[in-house]
Amino acid sequence: MGFKAQESLSEQIAHHLANQIIRGEMLPGDRIQELRIAGELEVSRGSVREALLVLERRHLIDILPRRGAVVKDMSEAHVRSLYELAQILLGLVVRKAIKVMNEDDLDPFIETIHRLQQFAEERDTEGFFQASFRFFELAYPFSRNIFVEDIMFNLQPAIQRAFYMALHIDQDEMKECLSFFKAIIETIFRRDIRSALEIIREFAEHQSDLVQESIIRARQIEAAWGARRKR
Questions:
Q1: Taking the mean position of all CA atoms in its chain, how far away is CA 56?
Q2: What's the predicted TM-score (pTM) here?
């Protein structure tokens, strides 16, 4: 794998590993072996170690005594807490955006919604996933708060992991998400803070419930298979 220079090497490694975790190519509890990653990517173990610290800060892995780096668990409590915090932070961003945005500022959001509509019609889950976070990244700076931007930036990979799971649980989830993005833009255009916060709350709770239910079903299936193997 060749890395090109704009980000630091450790950031590029972190991005590479984050994509694998977000897309479920590495599962909760999987160990991330520094030596193997360094060999695969032809980089130093020091660079891999720095990348793992980045991933820990972005809530995708835990670094444990005597075990090293492992992919973070996705329990119901983890998902519920993640969406509760995302709801609060996104509500803060949108509340501020309603106050400071002008009509010209909405153009990139509307363009992104057109792309999301196209991806949804084509059932292009990967394209829809990427465009969804383009929408969020456009919104963050309108918080006018460097601390909120920093928290959202570091929280985003964990949100992407749950969001990616939600999109693959139910094909109709793209329609749900598209309706959410359109509704948010409409409330910003109308300067309707109360409706915007309610829309964010309903969507966060909906997607949190969807992902939690999937985790519960997966655990039940795993337990049933385990019981069969013991017979």
A1: 15
A2: 0.89
